[in-house]
């Protein structure tokens, strides 16, 4: 298994760390941390001093503003350095400015909490983190090397050399451990907060809901085209074949062929009706969820008990989601569960539709096994609903759905 962080590599395979690239990556991470930290602190202190001194002549304000925004630049470098010991990138919490230009960029950054959190990280990094990096490198590498070369001046100090060799042998673990801990702290401080991701998450949820609605509209359009177009033409063709059969000699080959053609057209009409029900049932649009579920139960090869009590019609999106939950559950019961019966129950509690589908089959339904449950869970999640499956080995299987009807 490929590890994503130095901390994972050290925690799960400590004996294999020496043969991996993680100690070297960790060494590069800490070494660049010391160098970048020293340069950044020096530059920021110089800018801060220059800004304070020149503030009296009103030219220090831009310098101090640059110091306040310095965390944006520092943490951008830190996010790139973090990839040395953490392969998963840290998302940038900043949003795009509302308008082009430097003024809009500065105004946007100053209003973002992430900017001040990044400034705080810069202060912590400059006053503590890179100093700790330096101490860890000194303890893990410099001190052991000095202990190892000590017997060159004092031959009686060979125990010190043994201690140095032992410390140097442990250096890969020491360096990797601190690099992993430092990376975890950095990710914790730089990762976007929930409120900063709120707009993006809301946009994603709205986009997913629009896609589901567009898909359902397309299903309804296809159902109408099948019902009003191809199906009606086939029915008309069936009638014409019946009329032609009346004009033919009952015992002639033509009458036999017409009867066979009429039979095939009748089968095609039935298959087309089944197909249109699978695309989007007309009963769902015209009569509501209760009638559509009763039609499903009537067509099922399993005995299905329907107990759906709804005081009024629900939003079409809710009815559609509930209908396909029932349809998929009954299909799975027929194909996989070896059930002898099923039950569908639905109630409206205030503004939440509670739907359950159960069967007495062998159980073992697994959403990851490609039975369609994953798609149902995604559809329910899009509607801000809850979807739970209980299907122990030996049965029974219960699907429970809660859909808000706002």
From TrEMBL:
Q: Which UniProt keywords apply?
A: ATP-binding, Kinase, Membrane, Nucleotide-binding, Phosphoprotein, Transferase, Transmembrane, Transmembrane helix, Two-component regulatory system
Q: What is this protein called?
A: histidine kinase
UniProt-listed InterPro entries: HATPase_C_sf, HATPase_dom, Put_sensor_dom, Sensor_HK_TwoCompSys, Sig_transdc_His_kin_sub3_dim/P
Catalyzed reaction equations = ATP + protein L-histidine = ADP + protein N-phospho-L-histidine
Origin superkingdom:
Bacteria
- Top EC class for this record: transferase
User: Which residues are listed as membrane-spanning?
Assistant: 27-49, 55-74, 119-150, 156-179
* Annotated Putative sensor domain residues: 29-190
Record flagged with keyword Nucleotide-binding: yes
Asked if the keyword Transmembrane belongs to this entry, the reply reads yes
This enzyme's EC code(s) = 2.7.13.3
């Amino acid at each position: 298994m490929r590890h994503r962080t130095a901390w994972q590599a050290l925690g799960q395979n400590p004996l294999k760390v020496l043969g991996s690239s993680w100690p070297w990556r960790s060494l590069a991470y800490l070494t660049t941390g010391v160098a970048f930290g020293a340069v950044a602190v020096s530059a920021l202190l110089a800018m801060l001093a220059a800004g304070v001194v020149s503030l009296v002549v009103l030219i220090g304000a831009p310098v101090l503003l640059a110091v306040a925004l310095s965390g944006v630049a520092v943490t951008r470098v830190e996010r790139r350095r973090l990839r040395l010991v953490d392969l998963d990138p840290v998302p940038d919490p900043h949003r795009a400015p509302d308008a082009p230009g430097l003024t809009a960029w500065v105004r946007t950054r100053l209003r973002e909490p992430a900017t001040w959190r990044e400034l705080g990280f810069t202060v912590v990094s400059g006053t503590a983190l890179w100093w700790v990096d330096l101490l860890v490198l000194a303890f893990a590498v410099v001190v052991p090397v000095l202990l190892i070369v000590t017997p060159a001046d004092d031959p009686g100090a060979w125990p010190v050399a043994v201690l140095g060799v032992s410390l140097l042998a442990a250096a890969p673990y020491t360096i990797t451990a601190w690099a992993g801990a430092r990376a975890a702290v950095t990710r914790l401080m730089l990762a976007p907060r929930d409120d900063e991701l709120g707009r993006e998450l809301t946009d994603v949820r709205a986009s997913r809901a629009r896609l589901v609605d567009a898909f359902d509209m397309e299903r309804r359009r296809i159902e109408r085209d099948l019902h009003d177009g191809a199906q009606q033409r086939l029915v008309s063709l069936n009638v014409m074949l019946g009329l032609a059969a009346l004009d033919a000699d009952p015992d002639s080959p033509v009458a036999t062929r017409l009867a066979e053609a009429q039979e095939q057209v009748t089968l095609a009409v039935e298959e087309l009706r089944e197909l249109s029900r699978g695309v989007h049932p007309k009963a769902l649009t015209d009569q509501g969820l209760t009638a559509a579920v009763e039609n499903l139960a009537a067509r099922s090869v399993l005995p299905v008990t329907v107990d759906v009590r709804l005081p009024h019609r629900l939003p079409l999106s809710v009815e559609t989601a509930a209908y396909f939950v029932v349809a998929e559950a009954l299909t799975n019961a027929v194909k996989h569960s070896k059930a002898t019966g099923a039950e569908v129950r639905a109630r409206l509690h205030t503004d939440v539709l509670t739907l359950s589908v159960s069967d007495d089959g062998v159980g073992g339904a697994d959403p990851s096994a490609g039975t369609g449950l994953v798609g149902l869970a995604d559809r329910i999640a899009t509607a801000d609903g809850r979807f739970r499956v209980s299907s122990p080995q030996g049965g029974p299987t219960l699907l429970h759905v809660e859909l808000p009807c706002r």
